[in-house]
Design goal:
single chain; 51% helix; Arc Repressor Mutant, subunit A; six-stranded mixed sheet; eight-stranded mixed sheet; disordered C terminus; Glycerol-3-phosphate (1)-acyltransferase; alpha/beta
Length: 830
């Protein structure tokens, strides 16, 4: 061993005592077959990177990069090489080079004439100062990992400063045999193959660096100048000037819009926020359950990522950004309403990656052009983006219909420069208690929506020490924009970049919005509180015996596991006895209280908590809908034929699909699975072509009836709206129908205790009307909405599933609403 090698070994031992790398994926041994030879490829050479890799492989039980590598008759001193070498002492740069070791191994394999094990080429990226920092000093930030790599002295300083703040990322191995098979012709040229492999690796490391650090960020002023130089912005300015305004004033206005919109990312702020958020999650939640991260890793490299989560709470964007950074992805730029641009807080959010937009662009084409240009720049530069297509936070727990504004702007920006494929990443959030819960409860009870303010933010801080349970986050199936564009507009790439939004883009955006919402629901995480809410709210007075309630919770968990087996749905383990634990969890979170009667313990909803639990029940309503709908078939009958049960599902499901954003299937497979789940739990039993419910009075019969309560409000809403249309005797304009539905719902709430929001939520009512029209139950004519003959079929199905008492109550309410409507004047659009 030479003197230089001895010094290097000594220095490596010193570094090993200091470096504490994090590793992604968490179990890298799952990527590599230890029985085959392995060559590790680093992006940049250096003793520190090699030491970090050695420590990681030792901890993971992987072959050591320092061991000799024997392959195809060639022997190498170590199993590690680099594709770029560092030059210079302080401010040096990477110098691309052909890997000499890789060149020799490729040549040896091509020269070999015998079958040998495949060589696994494993790309490994090492980022110093990229893992969550424990210190946010400016001195540390100067030497954190970024796009401008320094020389050897700078790297030594970085190693000493960030040795305990380092991230090592393993990628999927490349197969040398597979690469050789891709070469065409009678012979394979070793040098050409090595050059090809080096290009592949350089592209891979660049994409990995973008996914981990974000794109190379130029100064904010440079970005804003490019926004203001956008042709659409210049045309907007010229139009304002042509209308008689001063050019200087219009230029100043456009510049002000750009500054109002743009993020001002600060690495110092990000690292400080990282520390604060780590403490916040510890104080606020019992833990964060993350699922589906592998689906994100599969599409992250080489694609423009647009995160489209459901919007439950202001915590959503903080939590998602935190998770992404922790999992080794770049921080996304998050679209936030300008109402959040509060004093102090707005500046912090802006430096943490938020960019702001107004609720409406209507009447301000210059603002619209500046915002579009800014979004286009983010996409061109490869920044990950995050926004909420529902527009605002859901107050009911259901997904809100998609608003296509941001989706349309994203698609249009991509059409102008379709270089990097755009992929939308749906994300589901499942909370057990909301920070804004009190405000939501007040709003649902009829109170005014509270406006965001700095004082309100300060007041909310006092609630941080309360118990909010666990948070469940699930990454859904990504959606490629190219696939939608190709299906709706074959040959769109040949049409060139459009200056204006093409008319054919609207159906693409509509389908994209619906698809995103379906993918979010298809990645739902069932929380213990959502199961508890579904069970306790199915009782008539929100009170139930402890053992009975525990059994109902476990029943729902079992039904969900069987009905949604093989999907992305996450269902908690509910083995026997787990229902009791969930009840105790509900008591700890303040939803339930315990009292006693002569028989034993009663579990009751706490006063004013019914609205909060309705929210969490609605989070998973779409998952219980099918088994609950089938249970409705036995509400007034002990037995049904198999044909009758399936017919009920076929008639009702299209409406439920529309309002709950469920995927429509062309077969009966989900119905078959749901029936099998009900049968396995003893709620129904099959006799040939006949289904019978459990004997009356048994726990199974009671459970079946309570399960049906989950979907009955939707069926009652359908019946209410349909009855009003039939009884009107003339076409009704939508506002008039909405008014009569609201009046009927109010009467039913007063006389029957029915929830008015379940019967007439504005979003659900609008979705129902659209489905009635699409399915030809209602005709949308020039004079208004009028029923077709098919609507009578719904009346027949309603008789099968709705109790006579509630059906007659709905008819009485609709008669009263119809008379009141006739007395109020002609059917006109108010």
């Amino acid at each position: 061993m030479t003197l230089m090698q001895r010094l290097e070994t000594l220095l490596a031992r010193v570094l090993a005592s200091w470096i504490r790398p994090d590793v992604l994926p968490r179990q890298p041994a799952g990527l590599i077959d230890a029985s085959h030879p392995v060559l590790y490829l680093l992006e940049v050479g250096g003793l520190a990177d090699r030491t970090a890799l050695s420590l990681t492989t030792r901890a993971a039980g992987l072959p050591s990069p320092r061991d000799p590598l024997h392959y195809a008759g060639s022997s190498e001193r170590s199993a590690i090489d680099v594709i770029a070498r560092r030059s210079g002492s302080i401010f040096g740069r990477r110098r691309p080079t052909l890997s000499r070791r890789l060149d020799r191994l490729v040549a040896a394999r091509i020269a070999s004439e015998v079958a040998i094990p495949d060589l696994q080429i494993v790309p490994v990226a090492v980022y110093w100062g990229r893992a969550p920092a424990k210190d946010a000093s400016l001195f540390r930030l100067l030497f954190a990992e970024n796009w401008a790599l320094g020389g050897r002295v700078a790297k030594l300083a970085t190693t000493l400063i960030h040795g305990r703040n380092t991230l090592v990322q393993f990628s999927e191995p490349l197969s040398l045999e597979s690469l050789i098979r891709t070469e065409r012709g009678p012979g394979v040229d070793a040098e050409r193959l090595t050059r090809k492999l080096s290009r592949i690796l350089r592209v891979h490391f660049r994409q990995r660096r973008i996914a981990t650090l974000g794109p190379d960020r130029s100064h904010r002023r440079t970005l804003l100048s490019q926004v203001l130089a956008n042709p659409a912005v210049r045309r907007g300015i010229s139009a304002e000037v042509a209308a008689g305004k001063s050019r200087e004033r219009v230029e100043r206005t456009a510049h002000g819009y750009a500054h109002e919109i743009a993020a001002d990312v600060s690495y110092a702020t990000i690292r400080i926020l990282d520390r604060l958020l780590t403490r916040l999650w510890t104080e606020l939640y019992d833990g964060v359950e993350l699922s589906g991260i592998d689906r994100l890793r599969a599409v992250a490299d080489g694609r423009e990522l647009v995160y489209v989560p459901c919007h439950r709470s202001h915590i959503d964007y903080l939590l998602l950004s935190y998770i992404l950074v922790k999992e080794g992805f770049s921080l996304p730029h998050v679209a936030a309403g300008v109402n959040l641009n509060l004093p102090v807080a707005g500046g912090i959010l802006r430096r943490g990656g938020a960019f702001f937009l107004r609720r409406s662009f209507s009447g301000n084409p210059l603002y619209a052009s500046v915002f579009n240009a800014y979004l286009e720049q983010l996409i061109r530069r490869g920044h990950a983006i995050e926004y909420f297509i529902e527009g605002g936070r859901s107050r009911t727990g259901r997904l809100l219909p998609a608003k296509g504004g941001m989706l349309a702007m994203t698609a249009q920006a991509y059409l102008r420069r379709p270089d990097t494929p755009v992929v939308f990443v749906p994300v589901y959030f499942g909370y057990e208690r909301l920070l804004e819960g009190a405000a939501f409860t007040s709003e649902l009870a009829g109170g005014k929506k509270r406006k965001e303010s700095l004082l309100g933010l300060i007041r909310s801080l006092k609630r941080l020490r309360e118990n909010y349970g666990r948070v469940h986050v699930n990454i859904g199936e990504p959606i490629a924009l190219d696939g939608l564009l190709n299906r709706h507009r074959p040959g769109w790439r040949d049409e060139g970049a459009p200056d204006e939004r093409p008319a054919w883009l609207k159906p693409v955006v509509d389908e994209l919005g619906t698809t995103v919402l379906r993918h979010i629901n298809e990645a739902a995480s069932v929380t213990p509180i959502s199961l508890l809410a579904s069970a306790i709210l199915a009782t008539s007075r929100g009170r139930q015996g402890r053992a009975e309630l525990a059994r109902q919770i476990e029943l729902y968990g079992s039904l969900l596991r069987v009905t949604h087996a093989g999907t992305l749905i996450e269902v908690p383990d509910l083995r026997s006895g787990r229902g009791e634990a969930i009840i105790e969890h509900g008591i700890e979170l303040g939803y339930l209280e315990v009292d006693n009667d002569a028989i034993g313990e009663l579990i009751s909803l706490r006063e004013q908590e019914a609205t909060a639990l309705t929210y969490f029940r609605n989070n998973i309503l779409h998952l219980l809908t099918l088994p609950a709908l089938l249970a409705c078939a036995f509400g007034s009958r002990r037995r049904c034929t198999d044909v009758e049960v399936r017919e009920l599902a076929r008639v009702a499901l299209p409406f439920l699909h529309g309002e709950l954003f469920m995927r429509e299937r062309g077969d009966d497979a989900p119905i078959v699975r749901a029936l099998a789940a009900l049968e396995a739990e003893g709620l129904i039993e099959r006799h040939g072509e006949l289904w019978r419910r459990a004997p009356g009075g048994t726990p199974e019969a009671v459970s079946l009836l309570r399960l049906a309560q989950t979907v009955l409000p939707a069926l009652e809403r359908f019946y209410l709206c349909s009855a009003l249309l039939v009884q009107a005797g003339q076409p009704l304009q939508r506002p008039e129908l909405a008014r009569r539905c609201a009046a009927g719902a109010e009467r039913l709430e007063a006389t029957e205790g029915r929830n008015r929001l379940d019967l007439h939520d504005r979003h659900l009512f609008e979705a129902l009307i659209e489905r009635l029209i699409a399915l030809d139950y209602v005709r949308d004519g020039a004079e208004g909405l009028e029923p077709t003959g098919r609507l009578q079929h719904l009346e027949a199905e309603a008789r099968r599933v709705l109790d006579d008492r509630i059906r007659h109550a709905i008819l009485r309410a609709t008669h009263a609403a119809t008379r009141a409507g006739a007395l109020s004047g002609p059917n006109t659009d108010p």
